[in-house]
Amino acid sequence: MKRCLVFLEQREGVVKQASIDTWNRVQELATLRPDITVSALLAGPADLRQLEGRMAGTGVLYLASDARFSRYNPEHYQRLITDIMKREACSDLFFADTVLSRDLAPRLSVRLKASLLSGCSIIEDIASEASCTRALYSGSVIASFAPRRPLSIYTTSSRPTHPIIPSETHISLVLLEPPGFIEATLLPVVCGMVMRESGSDVTEAGIIVAGGRGMGSAEDFEQLEELARLLGGVVGASRPVVDEGWRPHAEQIGQTGKTVAPALYVACAISGAPQHLAGIGSSRKVVAINSDPHAPIFDVADYGIVGDVHLVLPKLIEGLQEF
Ligand code: FAD
Fold first, then answer.
1. Pairing of strands 36-43, 58-64
2. How, if at all, do strands 264-268 and 285-290 pair?
3. Which residues contribute to the annotated binding site?
4. Which end of the chain is less enclosed by CB atoms within 10 A, N or C?
5. pLDDT at 158 > cutoff 70
6. Residue whose C-alpha is closest to residue 38's, from 64, 22, 17, 60
């Protein structure tokens, strides 16, 4: 019997969709392998009604609702997860591939002496010869990996391949008492947390309107903001845009930025360099607007418009305003 634990990441009490996708993906694997059981761990106070109809399958949800877990503290999170892994004899731990898990998962792999399989785009199976795949060298190579140790930690952008069926859901709740270690913090927090004003998060967005260097200036992003508003999405950016200071680093998408998985990705004046494509591979539909018909972004786009963004965007915005 293999026991899996999925870490549900929350911020300000809102559970990340990427974590729920990870849970549903692991549940999907469990339907193929009856010897797998799946549990989830949520650290910090959160309203559980937000999970209704979004998490499929069967399992236990461990809730450590102590307010001191509401913000990420590597020491507290490591000890909490380690305790549950040991108590439940879990062999596989799953995270969504996020900024938090990129910090936490390597720490845990050392603490638990576990194999770390990070940035998995697809998890095919667990405990098999090739259990997951990930892109290397900015997507030029797709490699298969298998864990070498009895314990494995995966960070994944993997999404469920089939729609979830909430009617089959049976998740029981276990409330965890505040652990004793939380009183004694060995790691002092010397820096504060800076919250962005806009609160929009490209990693969670269902629709992203992203702009590249070809937009021309910071002011030209007002059009992208308007288009994003009309579509109910958020604005993203390529690296040169961030380097120029036109947009904040939190919006950068790609190898050295965020990995995103929206239903719709609109790439405006973005060439489609491998380092940018490395961050958008899980997008369901890609629309590209570029004046160069040979721009590599068209190789990955589902729909393409060859044209000047300064002419195309006002027409798109006008059309949507009338819609
Ligand atoms: P450009 O390559 O300059 O492309 C601009 C595009 O706009 C062109 O295709 C052009 O045809 C089009 N265009 C120009 N004017 C118009 C117009 N008026 N209307 C329509 N189209 C127009 N990049 C990232 O994005 N994210 C990363 O995380 C990242 N990480 C990197 C890590 C490393 C180690 C390295 C070496 C590079 C990284 N890069 C990253 C940079 C990457 O290699 C590219 O340089 C970058 O993605 C290009 O950005 P861009 O498409 O906005 O600009």
1. parallel
2. parallel
3. 213, 238-239, 252-256, 290
4. C
5. no
6. 60
Is pTM, for the whole model, over 0.90? no
The vertex-67 CA angle with 61 and 72, nearest 5°, equals 80
The rounded distance, in Å, linking the Cα atoms of 71 and 54 is: 23
For the chain, give the number of residues. Answer: 323
> pLDDT for 176-232, tens place per residue?
988 777 666 666 666 566 666 555 789 889 999 999 999 999 999 999 999 999 999
pLDDT at 178: 81
Q: For residue 303, which amino acid is it?
A: Y
Describe the chain by its helix, strand, coil percentages, rounded to 5: 35, 25, 40
Neighbours of 65 (CB within 10 A): 15
Going by CA atoms, what residue is nearest to atom 33 of ligand 1?
A: 275
- Residue nearest ligand 1's atom 44 by CA: 273
Binding residues for FAD: 213, 238-239, 252-256, 290
Q: What is the pLDDT of residue 189?
A: 62
Give residue ranges with CB within 6 A of ligand 1: 212-214, 238-241, 252-257, 269-271, 273, 275-276, 279, 290-292, 295, 308-310
d(CA 204, CA 192): 23
* Mean pLDDT of the 3-31 span: 92
Q: What percent of the chain has pLDDT over 90?
A: 62
Residues 6+ apart with CB under 8 A from 35: 1, 2
pLDDT band at 81 (very low <50, low <70, confident <90, very high): very high
